[in-house]
Amino acid sequence: MRVFTSPYLYIHHEPLLHSVELEWRGRTQGNEVRVGVQKGLQVAQQQQARAWIANMMHMHVICPEDEEWLKTEWLYQLRPLGIEFLAIVVSNDALTRLSTYNIMSGSEQNGYAPLETVYFSSAQDAREWVRQACQASSLPCVERRY
Asked: How many domains does the chain have?
């Protein structure tokens, strides 16, 4: 179910998958990446999501400032929210794919990434993996502390 719509981003929440999906739609400008991610974090917290799908298939170019912010701020906030699974649908744009890998490699070195992170070429494959991972996980839903 779509819970947020803008020209550059759709946010979906799937209760059965306990997931939040950020579906990026083309070029972002200015503060849009940060605003969108913050909205996604809000939805993940409210819905007690266990999985985050970063659907970047149609995203174009992440500026260096946003790349650094995503590496240090966004991923740092996922674990305390109880996000166990991160599915990344890679972009069709080569520069965005490179930015994504830079963000993730830096965050993995710092221990910020969720327990399991997997890359996909299609959103459907990412959703199926999330469904299987959440069903197979013996980990209980993480209780949020506010």
From this structure: 1
